[in-house]
Amino acid sequence: MHTSISSIDLGIIGAYLVLVLGIGFYTAIRTRTGEDLFLGGRTLTWGCIGLSLFASNISSNNLIGLAGAAYTTGISVSNYEWFAGVPLIIMAFFYIPLYLKSRITTIPEFLELRFNRACRTYFSAVTILLSVVVDTAGGLYAGALVVKVFYPGAPLLPVCFALALVAGLYTAFGGLKAVVYTDAIQAAILLVGSVVLTFILFGKLGFSWATVREAVPEGHLSLIRPLDDPTLPWLGTLVGVPVLGFWYWVTNQYIVQRVLGAKNVEHARWGAMLAGFLKVVPFFTMVLPGVMAIKLFPGLKDGDMVYPTMITQVLPVGLVGLVLAGLVSAIMSSIDSTLNSASTLVVCDFIEPYKPGMPPERVAWLGRITTIVIMVLVASWAPLIARFGGLFSYLQQAFSILVPPVAAIFLIGPFWKRGNGLAAFATLIIGHVLGAGLFCLGQMGIWTIHFTINVGIMTAVSAAAYVGISLVTAPPAPEKVAACAWTPALAESAGRVAWYKNYRIHSAVLLAVLALLLAAFW
């Protein structure tokens, strides 16, 4: 087993970091205004959007968390990954044209256009909290775990600060365009590295799928699990996973920001479809390797150490550097995305509304300063995640509380004109208070329903609250709703496109691929 990184591997990682920083600072030279910093000047094309969506989502949380969960509990955890194609299709059909028509900079801004200022402020604050406490901090913590495999004595706090510093610098100065361009490179490195690792692992098993099946416990290779399954019961897959996916891909600022920066609706849709196809890849290169590790490395007690163990015990010198560069790519792409989105929310939702008329250059510098401040806060918080007992457990505890009411008002708001701002704001408060209450009851052993089923229950409760309160209060002004209401005309392409460029065709093919995957591993 490797106990340290060879000079060759360090050289590969170093070359990668120099390349990423070079691109970031090259982009920074051309980043002058707030729109440049936050939305890349609204010039992003479909390839960069799709690769960046994929890279930003496939963070170190996924690489380490998915492999560990597949090793300990089975492949059902991948339902969060491959199912992403469905909400991406929903976004392409319904929400992309609405968002781009509205010319918004942040997703909370859409809530102000549809409802009121209170909804925007509250949702923005919640999103910033998620970005700082959950998304970015989780990525830093996962990356620090891998560093400690090679340098066991390295303290978590300095490691987290070092990782945050690299991503924070080019994000603060280059903005979204730097994030997207570096993400495109990171996605390529990540794909190559994960495919190489999977190929070598499978080769050590004689390229025999039968050997894998014989080595794993019963049910380990099933996507659909019994109702009493502690990891992901079938009812949770049915009512919880879709809601979590919708929130993440359609309403999450750090993901949707790439779409908001698209040059037009068609490029945004094509980028979403590309990301949907790419999201199938992790099932084969991140989840199944965790299952293969059961045969190759039996007896590992800590799921978070499965992926680092595969790297250290399987790969030769040189390839260790390649795969670790892929892991560093995952760390950088998730950190840069969340830092950029959090600073966007702070400046656009909390500073600009109270200081209108600021010069675009000043807005950009405010964004840079905010990014650096958030970077320091995140790096300070990340080491505390170790107290939560695993990455996926940590993430689930936060999402199960915060997601349902947000999903409810976004699912209904654009399509039901009777819904009003008072009902939307009340739904956010009621949903989060009840969600926190259920979480506390669960910690006390009183409420034992699986968190994904809780997500479905709380989404239904939140939807009922939104509809009920809207019906007993005054309707919104028609002109308020008209600007943000979905109409069938929005689903049409901007102009005539060839069939192979039609996002409807892409959606149908993607749904067929997902159906085949589900049937093969039911």
Q: Key features?
A:
522 residues, Sodium/glucose cotransporter, 23 helices
Radius of gyration: 22 Å
- CATH architecture call of the domain at 7-30 and 42-224 and 256-386: Up-down Bundle
The top-level CATH class of the domain at 7-30 and 42-224 and 256-386 is Mainly Alpha
Shape: globular
Helix/sheet category: mainly alpha
Strand runs, count: 0
**CATH superfamily label of the domain at 7-30 and 42-224 and 256-386:** Sodium/glucose cotransporter
Distance from first to last alpha carbon: 36 Å
Largest sheet: none
Strand content: under 5%
Description:
The protein is mainly α and 522 residues long. It has a domain at 7-30 and 42-224 and 256-386: Sodium/glucose cotransporter. It contains 23 helices and no strands. The protein has helices spanning 7-29, 34-39, 46-57, 60-72, 79-82, 85-102, 107-114, 117-150, 156-204, 209-215, 234-239, 241-251, 253-260, 265-278, 281-296, 306-314, 319-351, 360-381, 391-412, 421-443, 451-471, 478-482, 503-520. The longest helix is centred in the middle third of the chain and has 49 residues, at 156-204. The model has no long low-confidence stretch (mean pLDDT 85).
